[in-house]
Amino acid sequence: MLEKLIxxxxxxTILVSYSMRGEELVVNEALKVRALPEGSxxxxxxxxxxxxxxxxxxxxxxxxIDEKLSKKKLHRLFYSDLMRLGFRAHHxxxxxxxxxxxxxxxxxxxxxxxxxxxxxxxxxxxDYKLDLDSMTLTLKLHNGYEARLRLVAPRERVEKFRGxxxxxxxxxxxxxxxxxxxxxxxxVKSLKPRTVMAIDxxxxxxxxxxxxxxxxxxxxxxxxxPHRKILTxxxxxxxxxxxxxxxxxxxxxxRKAIERHGKRIRNISWDYxxxxxxxxxxxxxxxxxxxILEDLEKLRENxxxxxxxxxxxxxxxxxxxxxxxxxxxxxxxLQVAKxxxxxxxSKCPRCSGKLVEYGHRVLRCMKCGFIGDRxxxxxxxxYNIYKKYISKYSRCGVSGVAPNAPQAR
Length: 409
Ligand SMILES: [Zn+2]
Description:
By secondary structure, the protein is an alpha+beta fold. Helices cover 40% and strands 29% of the residues. It is built from 10 helices and 17 strands. It has helices at 42-62, 71-84, 89-108, 155-159, 227-243, 252-287, 296-302, 307-312, 316-331, 374-395, and strands at residues 2-10, 13-21, 24-37, 119-123, 128-131, 136-140, 146-152, 165-173, 178-189, 195-201, 205-212, 217-224, 289-294, 336-339, 355-357, 362-365, 371-373. Strands 1, 2, 3, 4, 5, 6, 7, 8 and 9 form a 9-stranded antiparallel β-sheet that branches. A 5-stranded mixed β-sheet has the order 12-11-10-13-14, with helices on both faces. A 3-stranded antiparallel β-sheet has the order 15-16-17. The termini are close together. It binds zinc ion. Residues 348, 350-351, 353, 365, 367-368, 370 line the site of zinc ion.
């Protein structure tokens, strides 16, 4: 199973992870909203305190135990004690599983025993009822208590999750308000692609081409990137830091100026990535395309493209763009595949000969005389690599299906 864990805040929801299960894509998203208790919330607060203390008790007991604790063992050790405290069966399970995960991550990080202060509880799907129509949530608490909460969110934000299946949730109290993160899952059956969209990311432009399955180019689009603008802000930041090499962190005005440029960079890049992701996915939907991207990890290994690519900006912006493309594609049940970009801008798509510069952004093949725009040539190569991959795949008995979406990192 390929899995990708990310936390991505898309204004309303958080994409938790997505993974491939055979040909199915499983998307996990969380809806995080403020929740207003209807009536008294004394029991809810009591529940959260009790829950926190119970997790702490389990943490204290299993801290330092060397043997591997299976769920069965945990159950035997803690179940009846937790039930005696007034918890429900699934509360108990959530508590010891959560305690165990806390201990494990503490052991692999700093090695200090976790001390819980915040009021937060994981609740199994059997212990709450969500009503999307009335936007209410009923939590089953200890000792048979119940708490009803109203979700404070615009209708359409919640509406998105109709038809998804919800599993657990986390309820929190920050001293002022209650917050819930409800986890949803959706299984996406991808559409069978009829065309292939190849995308080449460059410093100045994004080039996308759509090919039929037998290789005819039917669409070509070049879009400008805001890279130069981002770079200008980057240069400003560096200039300021150079002028105050030791003190920029401590002088408020200077720090603020740097933060301002940083914020501009963030806004420009997210804004662009969201818009491009949307545009690409819409076009891919129209043409029913599988979207082919270059694998950026491999790109770094190969050290392809020009110095501009790595040095000046790093790969973060390309990653952000790809992430938004993948996200928007997923929203539309489209497939995304990544290919090893080796040679996409140096090999002749016709004869695999070496390409050399032939004027501004034009390449020419030394062997067969092929001449082509640099970016379009790159997308032809991306398409070819994908086709090769696919035919290899089909020979192995997998019927012409795309080599699935995002790769595991
Ligand atoms: Zn050639």
